[in-house]
Amino acid sequence: MSNLIDRLRNKGVVLTPQRLAVVEFLKKSTTHPTVNEIYKVLRKKYPMMSQATVYSTLELLKRIGEIQELSIRKDKACFDPNPKLHHHLLCRKCEKILDIEVNCPIIKKGKVKRCEVEEVQAYLYGICPACLKKEHGKKE
Ligand SMILES: [Zn+2]
Ligand SMILES: [Zn+2]
User: Fold this and answer.
1) Could you tell me if 78 and 97 lie in one domain?
2) Which residue from 81, 68, 98 is spatially nearest to 25, judged by alpha carbons?
């Protein structure tokens, strides 16, 4: 947490209280929130917070490689505080986004079919384990 703030300061990022609140929210988050979800939570504590501030802070963090933007939901962008390479599954029942760690030799960074792959993100759509369990529970 403090590491990230140090990294941001080293990169010359000016951290206003509002920006700091967004950074802190993201670092605590284990889900993949949308701009609106972040805004709704932070606005209670920071009445000066605007959706534009949330958005511009997210854009900034994305630009310097501290977070990822996901377009797994077709209607809205989600943000992932984990910048490391991993994939996602969107559950069509509960609409949760799960992190999926798969080692796929085709989906990787670097040289692929004479192209230089710089960014990789696989979006998987289906049903999460919790919802599957619920469904099976009903049948039995
Ligand atoms: Zn689910
Ligand atoms: Zn993720």
Assistant:
1) no
2) 81
CATH number of the domain within which 111 lies = 3.30.1490
Rounded to whole angstroms, how far apart are CA atoms 88 and 98?
Answer: 6
Residue carrying structure tokens 């988050």: 29
How many whole angstroms separate alpha carbon 95 and alpha carbon 116? 33
pLDDT digits (tens, 9 = 90+) for 95-112: 999 998 877 666 677 887
Token pair listed for 122: 């696989």
Instruction: Pick from 89-93, 102-106, 135-139 the range whose average pLDDT is largest.
Output: 89-93
Q: Token pair of 113, please?
A: 């079919």
Q: Which residues, including other chains, have CB under 8 Å from residue 92's CB and lie 6 or more apart?
A: 125, 126, 127
DSSP-derived 3-state class of residue 105: coil
C-alpha 84 to ligand 1 mean position (Å): 23
- Cα–ligand 1 centroid distance for 24 (angstroms): 27
Tokens at residue 13, please? 């990022």
If one counts the domains in the chain, the total is 2
Domain co-membership, 105 together with 74 = no
In this structure, which residues have their CB less than 5 angstroms from ion ligand 1? Answer: 91, 93-94, 128, 131
